[in-house]
Amino acid sequence: MVAETLPVMFDVVFDPHAQRHVAEHRLGERAVLDRMDEFPAFPTDAIAIKLTWYAVKAHGTTTMPIWDDEEPNAEGNPDRTWQRTITVDPESGAGLSAFIHRDLTDADVGSARVATRDPSLAPGDHVVLVAAHVTTKEIPDWTWQTYWWHDAPDAGRFAAERPPELHGAAANYLMDATYSTEQPCFNPWLEARFPDGLASNCVTCHQRAVVGAADYLPVTRGRLRADDPYFRGHLATDFLWSVTFESR
Length: 248
Hints:
Mean pLDDT: 90
Low-confidence stretches: none
Number of strands: 8
Structural class: alpha+beta
Shape: globular
Strand content: 15-25%
Distance between the termini: 22 Å
Oligomer: single chain
């Protein structure tokens, strides 16, 4: 598995409908999952979101890499190889306004230090949203949308057909989406670092979410057959890796 090298942290959050489903079926309990013969599919109004945050110091400047739709590398395009960076300066008055962001509090600074491997983070420092996966259960395979921050969001292929109603920080995020296992759909902050990550597909990755999976690699494209040996003896968790890895 390719390790993170930048000060990023992740959250996976459920909307109330998905959260209720998890609670009612005790999907957070590994012992319950191990006894299941069939996983209870999430309701059609369920939403799950994976958020990726980048730490920004309250004082001084923070350097952040930017992915400029670079050429794919078969070995992966990890963020440390991206060709360009920007400088974020919260004290400039405009440094944070371009991002969806929040401040670190006394309650969460400890976990932020561990996630970013930065013991100098302190209450009052910030985390800015650099990427998000959004999936909704409107169809059996869910819908798959992914977003990432860019300082030139009106340029390039991922800016096509941007809604004119977007304003403020929300307008600075590029988007990709898919409803098929064949079309490439990836997030540079999440999948680019893996081999062939820029050709990968959200659905293909998440269809492999099963209880007992060792990890989520490789990231590829294409549909697995229902009788594929990968699923033999394993309970599929309705495309949600968060259930697979976070159940206790």
